[in-house]
Write a structure and sequence with these properties.
The protein has about 400 residues and is α+β, with helices and mostly antiparallel strands. It is built from eight helices and 21 strands. It folds into two domains: about 5-70 and about 160-240 and about 360-400, FAD/NAD(P)-binding domain, CATH 3.50.50.60; about 75-160 and about 240-350, Alpha-Beta Complex (Polyamine Oxidase, Chain A, domain 2), CATH 3.90.660. It has a seven-stranded mixed beta sheet, covered by helices on one side. The chain has a seven-stranded mixed beta sheet with strand order 9-8-16-17-18-15-19. Strands 6-10-7 form a three-stranded antiparallel beta sheet. A hairpin with a 4-residue loop joins β20 and β21 (about 370-375). The structure holds flavin-adenine dinucleotide (FAD).
Length: about 400
């Protein structure tokens, strides 16, 4: 363990010898949702296998997650407290919600739905078309209401809460924060299936039977570049696009522009999510309308279009913020009395995996010789459900290899 690393449930096991009593030692690089879900399913899958098999080939795994930041489940929430009221503005500035289209993921999330930590968001969705004249209100038309059959789920009270809950439920896993894993190198002997990992300061992080990399694909590319990873060429296949996110806040509902204030006398329909047309903006989400979010001060998150964001990805963030703010002013039609008091902007350089029907999903990339797996949402559709599906594929790959 490095001097700066914090341990969530204990220390990483040192690089000493083989895995004891056949318990596979598994390193997961990255404590985002893919990493957390992989650890969760490994704990369930490999431990289950131990109970099921009369002569098990695997016993309970020892898992270590190495995360370079200070927290797990990178799902992003930003908040700011108003000193006068002690209330918060809050923005889910990454994923706003997720779907569960597969039966297995639907089953998996059920306990958190039962506890209320995850909740469906039955949002009123509108289409918002800007007026030609900047001073005029936009045209707002009802599009649909999200329902519980094809539900969009959110985590409460924050989007980060689910990741924390997943981490808290891990019992065979150590999470080492503030530990950046250095690029892997080719083992000295091809037959040596144990990989010694190092942090970027050169300190050993231990020896592992399996290494699972869940970093975003541009980072995975660097991590595996000099390792002779058999699937290296595949990592760069998915195309990624940027996303700028604008976060706005108002001091109270009285200060909201009419476009956002369904209680106003206007003909504006009540809405929670807007798809924006003819604008750099893509979608607008009203945070304080989400379930279990009504205590918030009025907070609005706006994702810019991916193609617009990609075209402006290297621009100065202040310039981008000013352009997006102008577009938001036009979309939400505020004046000097109803302008937001809180304004922030975030650049996601690699936000969206470009999906098209012709391209087959990669699936997790398995190098059986070295016992390395490269995984992540970008190996599938680039969303939260993909994190789960790729975690399940990883467990399947390891289980199959152990039982050979
Ligand atoms: C703007 C935006 C909007 C989105 N909207 C939606 C949505 O509406 N619905 C939906 O389902 N999904 C959405 N997503 C996608 C969703 O957020 C991702 O699918 C999910 O967060 C990916 O998780 P992950 O664990 O695969 O990757 P990450 O969250 O990127 O986790 C990878 C982790 O690896 C760590 N790491 C990297 N390199 C190292 C290293 N060398 N050593 C140690 N740690 C390392 C990183 O710090 C990071 O924590 C959105 C994403 C963005 C950015």
């Amino acid at each position: 363990m490095t001097e700066h690393s914090l341990s969530h449930t204990g220390n990483a096991t040192p690089f000493t010898a083989n895995s004891d009593h056949g318990a596979p030692k598994i390193a997961i690089v990255g404590g985002g949702l893919t990493g957390l879900l992989t650890a969760t399913l490994l704990e369930r899958g490999l431990s289950q296998q131990k109970q099921d098999n009369a002569a098990p080939k695997a016993s309970s795994p020892q898992i270590t997650i190495f995360e370079k930041s200070r927290s797990v489940g990178r799902l992003a929430t930003r908040y700011h407290t108003d000193k006068n009221t002690n209330k918060n503005w809050q923005w889910a500035f990454g994923a706003q919600f997720f779907t569960a289209k597969s039966d297995s993921f639907s089953q998996f999330i059920k306990p958190w739905l039962d506890s209320g930590l995850l909740q469906p968001w039955c949002a009123e969705v509108v289409e918002l078309t800007l007026a030609n004249d900047n001073k005029q209100a936009p045209d707002i038309n009802k599009k649909e209401q999200w329902d519980t059959t094809h539900a969009r789920y959110i985590s409460t009270p924050k989007m980060t809460s689910w990741g924390r809950a997943l981490a808290d439920n891990l019992c065979l896993t150590t999470v080492q924060f503030k530990t950046r894993v250095a690029p892997l190198s080719e083992p000295k002997a091809v037959t040596d299936k144990k990989t010694e990992l190092f942090d970027t300061n050169g300190a050993s992080l231990g020896g592992f039977d399996w290494v699972i990399c869940t970093a975003p694909n541009n980072q995975a590319l660097e991590l595996m570049a000099d390792s002779n990873f058999t699937e290296q060429a595949q990592i760069s296949q998915p195309q990624m696009q940027a996303c700028y996110t604008l976060m706005l806040g108002w001091d109270g509902v009285q200060q909201l522009p009419e476009t956002l204030n369904s209680k106003a006398k206007s003909a504006t329909p009540a809405w929670d999510v807007a798809y924006v047309h003819d604008s750099p903006l893509d979608r607008i989400f009203i945070e304080h309308h989400k379930p279990a979010h009504s205590d918030l001060l009025p907070s609005v998150t706006i994702h810019a279009r991916n193609d617009w964001s990609q075209a402006h990805v290297d621009n100065d963030i202040e310039t981008v913020q000013a352009e997006l703010l102008q577009a938001a002013k036009q979309a939400l039609n505020w004046d000097s009395n109803t302008a937001p008091s809180q304004i922030d902007c975030h650049r996601w350089r690699y936000a969206a995996t470009v999906t098209n029907t012709e391209r087959k999903e990669l699936g997790v990339l398995v190098d059986e010789t070295h016992q390395w797996i490269v995984s992540g949402d970008w190996c599938a559709q680039g969303n939260i459900e993909s994190c789960y599906l790729m975690a399940a594929e990883t467990v399947q790959a390891i289980t199959t290899a152990i039982n050979k």
